[in-house]
Amino acid sequence: MRCVLCERDIHPMLTWEGLFCRRKKWVACARCYAKFERARADSYEGINTLYIYNEAMKEWLHRFKFAKDSVVAHIFADELKRAFKRYKRAVVVPIPMHVDKKRERTFAHIDVLLEAAGVRYTHLLEKTTSDSQSQKSQQQRQKSATLFRRNAIQLKKDTPLVLVDDIVTTGTTIRHAREVLEQDGFINIEVVVLISARL
Amino acid sequence: MITGDSKALQHFLSGRIWPLEQLPFEQKMIEQVQRQGYLELFLAVEWLNNKPQCQRCFCPSSDAYIRYHCAKCDKICVYCRHCLNMGRLSSCDWLVRWIGPAVDAVVEPRFAWDGQFTEAQARVSRELIDSVKKRQSRLIHAVCGAGKTEILFAAIYEALTQNLRVCVATPRTDVVLELAPRFQQVFPNIDVQALYGGAEQKLSYSSFIVATTHQLLRFEDAFDVMFVDEADAFPYTFDATLQQAVQKARKKLGVTILVTATPDTATKLQYEKEAAYSFIPRRFHGYDLPVPRFESLWFYDKQLRMGRMPKKLARWLMGCEERGQPYLIFFSTIDLMEHAAALFSVPAVHAEDKERKEKVLALRSGEVAGLLTTTILERGITIPRVQVAVIGAESAIFTASALIQISGRVGRAQHEPTGDIVFFHHGVTRDMDVARREIKRLNAVVM
Description:
By secondary structure, chain A is of the alpha/beta class. Chain A has helices at residues 16-20, 30-35, 55-66, 77-84, 99-105, 109-117, 138-143, 172-183; strands spanning 37-38, 47-52, 91-94, 125-127, 148-150, 161-168, 189-196. By secondary structure, chain B is α/β, with parallel strands linked by helices. Chain A binds chain B through residues 2, 67-71, 102-108, 112, and chain B through 63, 66, 68-72, 77, 79, 81, 84-85, 87-88, 90, 92.
């Protein structure tokens, strides 16, 4: 077995789980995992983050989103799965990508992350603009018009929802998404974000 | 007659295979040339016996291919991870090759070199020119410090005057960076292009390319004469796709010339049988290769990890510093080196080190007394008066050829042709014996 990030051989420990469960195919080695920095458990502005943006995370994100190596999503599968255990009854809502952007990248990265972790999700939102937040300045981000719109899927308004995104910098994307859902009458909305890049 | 836009594409694409979406030309331009029938498009990942195969790297391992749901095609597509860092290729991507007329640029090369050859160098250089003329592949076995690069000059000149396309491929980027400017000096009116990961993209046609073996994946039927430098080095011997890349980048009737200091026996025998084996047993300055000494350093691993400097090693270091000689200390693993680094007052380098070049330069200029390193510096570097120690020479990573290369770092300069090379070990291995025996054998050869 090899690490998906550095290609070094991994010698997995012999455990009962390893003996009886199907072996996970796409994992990183301990050295690579150690380079990622965990975020503190408490949430900030109602956003739960799992990791902090650092050099290793930057490399991972580049590989995942720009080099389009979609299997590297699997290395955070366990961590994401654990994070979603808290929201048993909730409906998981990924932040959507614009259709053109998705076609260009050939996959929707949040969906792929969730699929790797085995978390079921339902798209309740649609992206209305195709321009990316990461190209804008802080002022531009805060002023920008609504980024999302509700789609046709109807749910009971008291269903708890969990919004998911890959990275949070200023929080604009999340704020927009939350507003759209709140306007539609949803009252219980939580947020899970993989990486925190707060300034 | 080829003009304008198609000429630009012709110059860039000749001998290359390139992803359609990554072509550094405007869409309109590409479409127009395509209508002229000069471009052939083919799928980047083909299916062979129900197995995917990347048409760029031909990676045979099925682990390298990832199935995913592609949003562009709305079906399952496959991409290749093996050559991912050259831009992802998926089963729905297209590669382009040039099938129009060949480039007819005729350049009279100028040859600006007037160095002196030793007798052996002159002989091998003649044999090489002969090889190029007769289109016969050849193996050049030259000891470390024999002046391998210089031998190539005349043969390259011969090939360029015949209007052949030449490539010098080497497994390591450092070596490309060192070789390209040297070749450019020797052939001042030829545009020598250096290709490596992260190099600036040039659109012009070049008849002389210096590249890492990885970059050859992007070529096909391109070169008449292909020199493979350090043909025994990692990752070339380790990665079968790179060897295939060299085959693919060469024209069907082209010549491959392997250059190495440590050929494996099978290759050597094969070329000897075809009378295509050239051998230089002497360094250019005519002195013997330094013979390594074995020194036991029992439980060095434990001592270093506990933060204790082994006495023998300390004495060796003192000796170097008193004589004011720079030194290199090779470690078997990055991990051990990092544990030991605190005991030394000098910097450490390894493959992922971004300041690698600066640190080596600092040693060369005498700013630091020595350097700790992994096998990354085993070949291609020349530091005058350097003394070398290998710690843990019994480790599996130090193969006989690696040890010969490491020993070859010592005594490369004309005015200081000797030096100390010590293998500190926790038990002597076969590879250590083979390395020492081979060095002694080379020293004893009379030609």
